[in-house]
Design a protein that fits this description.
12 strands, Elongation Factor Tu (Ef-tu), domain 3, single chain, OB fold (Dihydrolipoamide Acetyltransferase, E2P), 3 domains, 339 residues, alpha+beta
């Protein structure tokens, strides 16, 4: 290779290096300009749509006889949802009504003086009261054992005790009535007979109050969210039968760091996007802001130049009705300072 060829090769290398340096410098300048002047894209805060859900339950223990609704059905306030049948309570109602009839008849006859029929009626009333006392005593003893074993709550044990105490009192009243009948009708007898009618009527009212819960109805308009037992299953007192999702109560919940609260104030209106509704934008108004506590604090990973940030929960309701909006759907809010 001649000296002239070597010189030309060196010159070509210098030109190539200079060209590459110019390209790298141009790319760096463009990147710096873009970083300085390019608009930063908005950040997103993702939340969730929520709603009010209640559990439908009753005071009557028994067997689920019929369901009148299914999961997903729309119901209105007052619609019948389920029928719970209890043969035990039906028997108690028959017994209470029989005792009331006896008391009423006794009250009618007391003015006629002490006759064998009156004494027999009082004796029948006493026997019925004693039978009721025996039933309620056994029920209370059984509840006491279950409570001791931790199977039932103290409230149920107390309810059984109250029923037993009422039966004991009714037996005492029946014994007094029988004693008065044997002694002869006096003014006190008349008052006692009238009181027995009232007591028997109260027993009927008590059982009928329980039977009112044999047909459970919807307390408000909504959608049946979930049904728990199957038809034919036994349910206990207070056991949830189904859950009802309220139709007219929806809100959106966001969890945000405290440095973003400056733009999220009480009463302010936000525009959020609902992906499940075809990315539809809706307006929501903030009505609730609460600190979520230290467990939700964002901890700084830097020893200097940063700080811990607490998390706040924000709730906002739609400003107008949004058809198809359901709990569980995502809600996205574009915040200019979110990262």
């Amino acid at each position: 290779m001649t000296t002239q060829d070597t010189t030309q090769e060196k010159r070509a290398n210098r030109v190539l290096l200079a060209t590459m340096g110019i390209v790298v410098l141009a790319v760096a300048i463009i990147a710096i300009i873009g970083f300085i002047f390019m608009n930063r894209p908005d950040g997103y805060i993702e939340g969730q749509v929520e709603g009010t859900t209640i559990r439908i339950s009753g005071k009557l223990p028994g067997r689920v006889a019929d369901f009148y609704v299914h999961e997903g059905d729309t119901v209105h306030a007052g619609d019948t949802l389920v029928h719970i049948h209890s043969s035990v309570v039906d028997a108690q109602l028959g017994q209470a009504e029989a005792m009331r009839r006896v008391a009423e008849e006794q009250n009618k006859k007391v003015d006629a003086g002490t006759r064998i029929q009156i004494i027999n009626a009082a004796a029948d009333l006493l026997r019925q009261a004693q039978a009721a006392e025996t039933i309620t005593r056994k029920t209370y003893e059984r509840m006491e054992r279950l409570y001791t074993e931790g199977v039932i709550s103290e409230q149920k044990r107390d309810e059984a005790k109250a029923a037993y105490d009422a039966a004991v009192a009714a037996t005492g009243a029946a014994e007094s009535q029988l004693s008065l009948a044997r002694q002869g009708a006096q003014s006190e007898d008349k008052a006692s007979a009238a009181a027995m009618v009232d007591a028997a009527g109260s027993s009927v009212d008590q059982v009928q109050a329980l039977l009112e819960d044999s047909y459970l109805t919807a307390p408000f308009d909504g959608t049946i969210d979930q049904v728990y037992p199957e038809a034919g299953e036994l349910v206990a007192m207070g056991a949830p039968i189904m859950s009802l999702l309220r139709t007219d109560d929806r809100w959106v919940t966001f969890n945000v760091r405290e440095e973003l609260l400056n733009d999220l104030t009480m009463g302010s209106t936000l525009k959020v996007m609902i992906p499940a509704l075809g990315k539809k934008d809706i307006d929501v108004k903030i009505y609730y802001i609460r600190d979520m506590g230290s467990y939700a604090t964002w901890r700084s990973t830097k020893s200097t130049g940063s700080y811990d940030s607490r998390t706040f929960q924000i709730k906002a309701r739609p400003t107008e009705d949004v058809p198809g909006l359901r709990p569980g759907m995502s809600a996205v809010y574009s915040h200019p300072n979110a990262d």
